[in-house]
Automatic annotation (TrEMBL):
Top-level class of the enzyme under EC nomenclature: transferase
GGDEF domain span: 244-384
Listed name of the protein: diguanylate cyclase
GO MF annotation list: diguanylate cyclase activity
SUPFAM superfamilies: GAF domain-like (SSF55781), Nucleotide cyclase (SSF55073)
GO cellular component, one term: plasma membrane
Catalytic activity: 2 GTP = 3',3'-c-di-GMP + 2 diphosphate
Protein's GO biological process: cell adhesion involved in single-species biofilm formation; negative regulation of bacterial-type flagellum-dependent cell motility
EC number: 2.7.7.65
Signal sequence segment: none
Length: 385
């Protein structure tokens, strides 16, 4: 039998204490092992999340991944994202690229830093960047970052999204566990996560902006031919699947050469912008307006038969002709347009989409020239000869 340090044989009490200490050590080791395995699992899930958002090819995919995956892997009850969007540039471009913001109710846009809804902290030589704000959830104070806060939300972390020490928004995390986010908690992990998200956001938004520029007419701000050619193929395929008609307008400004000769190309550019605006005002958000080049515009109308498309075209014609275009206080011009309208009816979208698209455009173009040959300032959807 083992002797104690004093040379005496261990008593029953000594043996009991040693056994208890041994059990405590084993329990501690088991707890540490469990925590290590849990932390490894969390890190593995977050590494997979990082790879997924880095691979996101567009804005909806990135935002959707953040809202779908992050609450699960981080065991959160609420995740929202606030982006600073001065002058609504991001929203404008994303809407142009057909992003449906209603799909992302936890995506919040503000125009200024002060609207983020939390204190970013003092910035000085010792604290060059703001730190995350952790603490108990307050429904009134956190109304902006958590507009749809779930019942029972207890603690939150408001994490600035930083790019080159510039704040582009905040990642807002919420938990029903009151001890999840406390002011004493270390923030290195969530700061790292926010930095990855910030990089991905900036890259995707920049790419979407470039995509928008490549699909937009720089003079009028409406789409260009490249966009409408691509969109028309997509809509033909969709109309075929869902069985609805699509219509196509070809619009030409009458006697536009005279406009340029009279007021110069600068004045002509103003006329193009004004006409584009008047056309756009008569369309639905689901429709697409593009400048084909020169003084020609086209409109793609979704789920619109020939009769309804001709009605919209007449509204456009009347809007352009109805009031003069003011180029200055002293100079106003009267401008009219001619419009040809063609329709792809249900059941007629069989065949190659490229061939169908060309035929639809050619039909509208033919009707446009028929309108111009028969007096201009008119809408033609069927030929009378």
């Amino acid at each position: 039998m083992t002797q104690t340090a004093t040379g005496k044989l261990p008593t029953q009490t000594d043996q009991h204490d040693l056994a208890a200490e041994n059990r405590a050590l084993r329990a501690r080791m088991a707890y540490l092992l469990e925590q290590a395995e849990r932390n490894h699992s969390i890190m593995t899930r977050h590494q997979a999340f990082d790879l997924e958002i880095v691979g996101a090819s567009n804005f909806p995919e990135l935002i959707g991944t953040i809202f779908r995956v992050l609450p699960v892997i981080s065991e959160l009850d609420s995740v929202t994202l606030t982006l600073i969007d001065e002058d609504a540039d991001i929203r404008t471009v994303m809407l142009k690229l057909d992003v449906v913001f209603e799909d992302f109710p936890d995506l919040i846009f503000v125009e200024t830093l002060d609207e983020l809804g939390f204190d970013l902290g003092r910035r000085n030589a010792y604290s060059p960047t703001p730190k995350p704000q952790l603490g108990m959830f307050d429904r009134q104070r956190h109304a902006e970052p958590f507009p749809n806060a779930p019942a029972g939300l207890q603690s939150v972390a408001l994490v600035p999204l930083l790019r080159n020490k510039r704040i582009i928004g905040s990642l807002n995390l919420g938990s029903c566990d009151p001890t999840r986010f406390t002011p004493s908690l270390g923030t290195d992990f969530i700061e790292h996560m926010a930095s990855i998200i910030a990089i991905c956001l900036e890259n995707v938004i920049s790419n979407e902006m470039l995509k928008y520029i490549g699909l937009t007419d720089s003079l009028t701000g409406v789409y260009n031919r490249r966009y409408i050619d691509r969109r028309l193929l997509e809509e033909i395929a969709r109309a075929r699947r869902q069985q609805y008609p699509i219509s196509f307008m070809y619009i030409d400004i009458d006697h536009f050469k005279r406009v340029n000769d009279t007021v110069g190309h600068g004045g002509g550019d103003e006329v193009l912008r004004e006409v584009a605006g008047r056309i756009k005002n008569e369309l639905r958000t689901s429709d697409a307006l593009a400048r084909f080049g020169g003084e020609e515009f086209v409109v793609l109308l979704i789920d619109a038969n020939l009769e309804s498309a001709a009605f919209v075209a007449e509204r456009i014609r009347a809007s352009v002709a109805g009031s003069m275009i003011a180029l200055s206080l002293e100079l106003q011009l009267s401008v009219t347009v001619s419009i040809g309208v063609a329709c792809l009816e249900v059941g007629t979208a069989e065949g190659e989409p490229d061939a169908i698209a060309r035929a639809l455009i050619e039909r509208a173009d033919d009707l446009l020239y028929y309108a111009k040959e028969h007096g201009r300032n008119r809408v033609v959807s069927t030929r009378e000869d």
